[in-house]
């Protein structure tokens, strides 16, 4: 759906368009002279004259992007930003007309604006997707005109080959371009529930939450009982190495206990083995000891 400006905005846009179209075009010599004055001497007046002469190029480009349903005035503003960037980077020594050089910057600025604002969901994050977004409608219309029917599997494959993307990306983009953003808070119909009321909850159910809490408490009780079966030195090592956020090093524990760090490692290994055996004795299903990360 195309965006419709309010009357005041329409009058302002029309006035700008008329003024731009009445600005005379520049000859090649005049264009290069202005570009050199701006680039070499920083002449602001020369830059303004150069830019004003090609605002009509901005307007013509903006008209081609109106089908994306965005305000004409915003498109023109973005195009003017691109035009200014072109003026800042234009090199007269390359012997290229400014209009040819500026056209790329204007189009690029408008494309970026469309991709940022056409949908609340980010679109065209790669160069291939960006090309697909701006060329799919044109290619689809051409194929449908030739085939005399709606775009089919063969047409999607042809588009994918032309643009160098996967056919799955063509299908996803075709689906996105054929639909608009819709609020999940919008009712499905008059007096009906909102769309968000029918979104499946991917989280655990209340029953799963209760069972998870109970299982966690059981595992904690089993672990406390298993720790109680260790010697005081083994308990100290496990507590410092496994049950502390900081996690003491083998060398630190060795100094505290008056033994080598290799001896601490051996004691830790033996204590962990005892814990594992003790925990397994408390259940017939060892898998019950595992915590579900999902």
Classified by CATH, the class of the largest domain is: Mainly Alpha
Structural class: mainly alpha
Describe the largest sheet: none
Q: Any idea how many domains? A: 3
- In terms of DSSP E residues, the strand content is under 5%
Give the proportion of residues in helices: 55-70%
CATH architecture of the largest domain: Up-down Bundle
Order of helices and strands: HHHHHHHHHHHHH
Low-confidence stretches: none
Shape: elongated
Quick synopsis:
This protein has 294 residues and is mainly alpha-helical.
Word description of this protein:
The protein is 65% helix and 0% strand. The chain has 294 residues and is mainly alpha-helical. The chain is elongated. The protein starts with 6 loop residues before the first helix and ends in a 14-residue tail after the last helix.
SSE layout:
Layout: H1 7-22, H2 28-41, H3 44-52, H4 55-64, H5 72-89, H6 98-117, H7 127-147, H8 153-163, H9 167-177, H10 206-228, H11 232-242, H12 250-257, H13 261-280
Helix pairs in contact: 2-3, 4-5, 4-6, 5-6, 7-8, 7-9, 8-9, 10-13, 11-13, 12-13
Which terms summarize this structure?
mainly alpha; 0% strand; elongated; Arc Repressor Mutant, subunit A; Four Helix Bundle (Hemerythrin (Met), subunit A)
């Amino acid at each position: 759906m195309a965006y419709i400006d309010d009357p005041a905005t329409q009058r302002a846009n029309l006035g700008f368009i008329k003024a731009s179209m009445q600005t005379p075009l520049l000859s090649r010599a005049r264009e290069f002279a202005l570009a050199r004055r701006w680039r070499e001497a920083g002449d602001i007046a020369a830059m303004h004259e150069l830019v004003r002469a090609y605002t009509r190029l901005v307007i013509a480009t903006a008209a081609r992007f109106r089908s994306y349903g965005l305000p004409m005035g915003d498109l023109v503003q973005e195009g003017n930003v691109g035009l200014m960037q072109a003026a800042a980077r234009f090199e007269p020594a390359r012997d290229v007309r400014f209009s040819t050089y500026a056209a790329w910057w204007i189009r690029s600025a408008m494309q970026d604006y469309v991709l940022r604002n056409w949908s609340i969901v980010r679109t065209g994050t790669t160069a291939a997707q960006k090309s697909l977004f701006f060329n799919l409608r044109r290619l689809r219309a051409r194929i449908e005109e030739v085939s005399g029917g709606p775009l089919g599997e063969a047409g999607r494959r042809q588009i994918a080959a032309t643009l160098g993307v996967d056919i799955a990306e063509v299908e996803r983009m075709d689906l996105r371009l054929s639909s608009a953003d819709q609020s999940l808070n919008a009712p499905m119909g008059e007096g009906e529930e909102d769309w968000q009321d029918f979104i499946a909850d991917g989280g655990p159910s209340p029953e799963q939450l209760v069972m998870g809490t109970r299982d966690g408490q059981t595992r904690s009780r089993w672990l406390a009982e298993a720790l109680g079966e260790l010697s005081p030195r083994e308990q100290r090592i496990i507590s410092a190495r496994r049950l502390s956020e900081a996690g003491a090093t083998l060398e630190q524990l060795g100094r505290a206990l008056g033994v080598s760090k290799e001896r601490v490692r051996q004691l830790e290994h033996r204590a962990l083995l005892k814990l594992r055996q003790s925990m397994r004795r408390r259940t017939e299903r060892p898998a019950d000891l595992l915590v579900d990360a999902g």
